[in-house]
Amino acid sequence: MVTVQAGTVERVVVYPVKSLAGSSRPAAELGPDGLAGDRAWVPVDAASGAALQARDVPGLHDLAPSGDPDRDAAALSGLAGAPVRLEARTGPAGAAVHLVSRRALDRAAAGEVPEGCAAEDPRANLVLALGAGGDERAWVGRRLRVGGALLEVSRLPKHCLGVYAEVLRPGTVAVGDPVVVDPVVDPAVEDDGV
Questions:
Q1: How many angstroms separate the CA atoms of 41 and 16, rounded?
Q2: What pLDDT sits at residue 151?
Q3: Cα-based distances in Å from 95 to 22, 65, 105
Q4: Which of 109, 128, 139, 147 makes the best surface tag, with the fewest CB within 10 Å?
């Protein structure tokens, strides 16, 4: 069975507070729920208890978290014009990790997106530099080895940029790590023991 190095990790990004700006890291631990510290806090409207999202509060994506939940809640309250609190996330954040290629980001920035897709920042955890002809969207259902982690690409996001993957084996992921795509195995072809 031949594996293929599809590219390398160009950027590792952790988003400590859901919907706020991310923080680039040289490396991060990737566990069953995603990158360590990713989306650990959720901004919530203090009156209604509803989670705030960027579509509700313009400028949310541009606000960089300070690392102090009380200070971040105060900054969010000022931005939202109403009291906001941060709550610790409970349970998984959905798909464990979001991967997108530099090529897809560049095409989206130039306005080249398929019909029905969005060109906004997809807020990916791993930005990948892929080789010629590489397209992460073709990886759905396949396994990837990235750094010390093993992932299975599970689906395309609604906004169409990149892919979501689940963590099969935790490990450290760092800038410069190879991204290796396991080959497609045709279940119709039987192993004849040769």
A1: 6
A2: 96
A3: 17, 22, 20
A4: 109
Same domain, 82 and 101: no
Which CATH number fits the domain that encloses residue 26? 2.40.33.20
Buried b (16+ CB within 10 A) or exposed e, 33-42: bbbeebbbbb
CB contact at 8 A, 20 and 43: yes
Backbone angle region of 73, left / alpha / beta, with phi > 0 → left and psi within -120 to 50 → alpha: alpha
The reply to whether 186 falls in a domain is no
Do 68 and 116 have their domain in common? no
Question: Averaged in consecutive runs of 10 residues, what is the pLDDT profile of the chain (194 residues)?
Answer: 83 92 94 89 90 84 86 89 88 76 89 76 90 88 95 88 94 97 62 47
Supply 5's token pair: 């190095």
**H helix intervals, 22-163:** 69-80, 102-109
Name the DSSP class of 23: E
Last residue of a domain, one of 53, 88, 123: 88
